[in-house]
TrEMBL record:
Compositionally biased intervals (Basic and acidic residues): 135-152
Cited InterPro entries: DUF6960
Lineage, uppermost ranks: Bacteria, Pseudomonadati, Planctomycetota, Planctomycetia, Pirellulales
Organism: Rhodopirellula bahusiensis
Region of interest: Disordered: 135-159
Protein name: Uncharacterized protein
Length: 159
């Protein structure tokens, strides 16, 4: 049983030409592949894998590819960068590219901030998905509950 989605790259063009690409998708695939772009396989219909890279969808027959462990971030996701000391500027942006860096064995992400593409690439630990909510722990201080008639307990302040 194959589980989807799967992530990976097509680093080389197969020797057999374009027969592995669905005829309607040749123009899209020829712009994206071969490359270090991390492609998402979403399903298999028995003949073609249905793939996605951002807004582009295409169909490919089974071919040699390098499968990569997913990091729960995809092209199109909105993220917030996480600072590293004073080294990074914090901002909210959109993931516009995923690239596999072989020498690091990691996925690097290209981000867009407003209408500007950021020149450097980010790793997963340098950003947080906006859908990841932080939890606030239960408070330890007992606060008095106010009453509508003004008879509630007051906190005394020392001058």
């Amino acid at each position: 049983m194959i589980e989807f989605p799967q992530y990976g790259i097509y680093p080389r063009w197969p020797e057999d030409g374009q027969g592995w690409i669905h005829p309607d998708d040749i123009s899209v695939v020829s712009k994206l592949l071969p490359s270090e772009r991390v492609v998402r396989r979403e399903s298999f219909d028995g003949t073609y894998y249905h793939c996605r890279y951002g807004k582009w969808t295409f169909r490919l027959r089974p071919a040699l590819w390098l499968q990569i462990k997913a990091e729960d971030v995809d092209v199109g996701d909105e993220v917030e960068t996480v600072g590293l000391g004073l080294e990074r500027d914090l901002f909210v942006g959109e993931v516009i590219g995923m690239y596999y860096v072989r020498r690091k064995g990691r996925i690097a992400y290209r981000l867009r901030r407003a209408d500007q593409n950021m020149p450097r690439l980010f790793l997963r630990e340098h950003m947080r998905l906006l859908s990841e909510k932080q939890r606030v722990r239960q408070g330890e201080i007992e606060h008095p509950t106010p009453k509508w008639d003004g008879s509630g307990d007051r906190i005394g302040f020392s001058d």
